Amino acid sequence: MPTSGPSPVRYSINPVNPEAHLFEVTCTVADPDLSGQVFRLPAWIPGSYMIREFARNIVTLHATSAHKPVAIEKLDKHTWRAAPLPEGEALTLTYVVYAWDLSVRAAHLDATHGFFNGTSVFLAVDGRTDRPCLVELQPPRKELLKTWRVATTLPRAVEQTDAAAPMGFGLYRADNYDELVDHPVEMGTFDHVSFEAGGILHEIAITGRHDCDTERLCKDLSRICSWQIELFGRPAPVQRYLFLAMIVGDGYGGLEHRSSTALLASRADLPYRGMNGESDGYKNFLGLCSHEYFHTWNVKRIKPAAFTPYDLANENYTRLLWAFEGFTSYYDDLALVRSGVIAIEDYLALLGKTISGVLRTSGRLKQSVAESSFDAWIKYYRQDENAPNAIVSYYAKGAMIALALDLQLRKASAGRVSLDDVMRLLWQRHGLTGKGVPEGGLFALVHEVGERGAVGSGRRIGRWLREAVEGTDDLPLKKLLKPFGITWQAEPSAKRPTLGIKLAGGNGEAKLANVFDDGPAQRAGLSAGDVLIAIDGLKVSSGSLDAAIARRAAGEQIRIHAFRRDELMEFDVTLEAAPADTVKLSPLKRPSPTTGALRKGWLGA
Ligand code: ZN
Predict the structure, then answer these.
(1) 438 CA to middle of ligand 1, Å?
(2) How far is the CA of 373 from the centre of ligand 1 (A)?
(3) pLDDT by residue (tens digit) across 36-59?
(4) What are the CB-based long-range contacts (under 8 Å, 24+) for 420-429?
(5) Nearest CA to 536 among 564, 556, 558?
């Protein structure tokens, strides 16, 4: 630690009561604000755009100075102020945090492991957030848990070099509060493996019961990570990188951090020894790892200007999530094929799935990806039964916009420039400099890259991008894919007429999760939440509904009995032909030399 400069803010965190899911945290300020020190816990975590009010998990909190109590008052839902102290007296807050959220966004503690994001456990010290932070990770007290280790990319504090065993408990440091809360911490008996990619050490810590073929996982991830590092150019922006994977029976999620990621994945999605090829689940898992890793550049360093700096107390509005989440969603699967981990046919199947997902929701015709980005806080992250009718995913449609942009740049320039050049320019202008991307910044950048490939095409493509981002028209992907020797076939998802509904999963009841706008069920008056009990007088369940519909034809009328709450109702529904919303993409077997060259430039050999 430097001996001069302002004194660091000191934290300690102790998994004090795993059975009750309680961490005990202390925060000590050597020179608190003389007018009364204010402390604040974030209301949201960067990467997950929703107000979560983590302060609701603080169970008790008190303040002391030289072991004497100090009065503390609450100013709002997540802000506290301690009574003023005489100059030179240090202030310590001690508080207990309830940690029982098994997600990548918060904190979780039981006798099997502990996990936390700093945003859930470390109070920010008002006016002192630029100061260095020291954090003492304390081991659990129980003898049974003495085998626990620590996985995090928080650096060890220099003053404890002798005790700084790899993965040991003890003192860690961060340059400021922003950095402190951007390194999640796992503690427990995780499995640990590592690999090298792009000249840096990559580690994977796997928590939870699993039978993962870690050798296979390391081999595949190493190719994906190397490819991404080469895309943006060496050196990699981090000195080491950590995948923190929590494995459960059924789960999916990931959250990006500056040099690590927290992942939640299903046991069955991991590769196992002797597995042939890649299961769909494994491709999904690799796509998730690839996605979070790509964020190391795109959103953790290339950021919307609206995020520089983050305001963790309030919503941070930007219309650009289509570029940060959508482009990342495009590159996550693309990295799998470009690095040679999956075949071109597998990639096209993944792409077809993304496209079909967008085409199945009429929300795409009502909301642009710019609007979806801006309203992420109240819409995308808070989806209800009407979401498919009202919302477009800035992930999936953003990925389609990235695809369309990539194809246009490649075609117009005969392969001289591509979206890769846009990403590299973003990295040089905004990633390396830390200068946020202004709200309209992407359009000018794309214009510039387009001009570099072929004079005159930049303006057209830049304008196209603005219209795609701000409008709700379907993208001309079928036409754009043709010069790359990819055929587009759209067909209904199943050979039966449709009711225009989606069922909720569950116990066998045919309960409606969604009723799609202008579909047969909505026209007849059925609503989300209704439970269908009979079709034409015969009992129906979630398992038998499809078979019952498959025996009818489009245009036929059926009588449905359903419960709305506890009231029995009858509906006459006229079935319709299912829409051709399932897209299958296939590569032409014998493309022309021009087509073959374009495709090779895009997808690799
Ligand atoms: Zn993401």
Answers:
(1) 19
(2) 13
(3) 999 999 999 999 999 999 999 999
(4) 420/231, 421/449, 421/452, 421/453, 422/446, 422/449, 423/231, 423/232, 423/297, 423/298, 423/327, 423/331, 424/231, 424/232, 424/233, 425/449, 426/298, 426/302, 427/232, 427/233, 427/297, 427/301, 427/302
(5) 558
Beta strands 240-248 and 200-207, pairing class: parallel
CA 439–ligand 1 middle distance (angstroms):
19
What's the Cα-to-Cα distance from 596 to each of 75, 342, 485, 486, 591, rounded to whole Å? 65, 19, 7, 10, 5
What's the CA-to-centroid distance between 350 and ligand 1, angstroms?
Answer: 17
**DSSP single-letter state for residue 269:** G
Tell me the CA–centroid distance for residue 480 and ligand 1, in Å.
26
**Cα–ligand 1 centroid distance for 290 (angstroms):** 10
Pair 378, 390: CB distance under 8 Å: no
* Structure confidence at residue 5 as a pLDDT band (50, 70, 90): confident
Residues 152 and 168: their CA atoms lie apart, in Å, by 10
Which run of H or E residues covers position 400? Answer: helix 396-412
What are the tokens at 400? 């389609």
CA distance 557 to 367: 33
| Token pair 């909301």 in the structure block, residue | 367
Q: Report the separation in Å between the CA atom of 26 and the middle of ligand 1, taken as the mean of its atom positions.
A: 32
The percentage of residues in the chain with a pLDDT greater than 90, rounded to a whole number, is 96
Q: Tell how far the Cα of 354 is from the centroid of ligand 1, in angstroms.
A: 15
Q: What is the pLDDT of residue 1?
A: 46
Q: Which two tokens stand for residue 445?
A: 């950048």
Residue with tokens 């077809």: 352
Give one DSSP letter per residue of 193-247, joined into a string.
EEEEETTEEEEEEEESS----HHHHHHHHHHHHHHHHHHH-SSPS-SEEEEEEEE
- CA-to-CA distance for 323 and 320, rounded, in angstroms? 6
DSSP letter at 323 equals I
**pLDDT tens for each residue of 127-153:** 999 999 999 999 999 988 899 999 999
The confidence score (pLDDT) of residue 162 equals 53
- Answer positive or negative: Cα dihedral of 413, 419, 424, 429: positive
Residues 6+ apart with CB under 8 A from 567: none
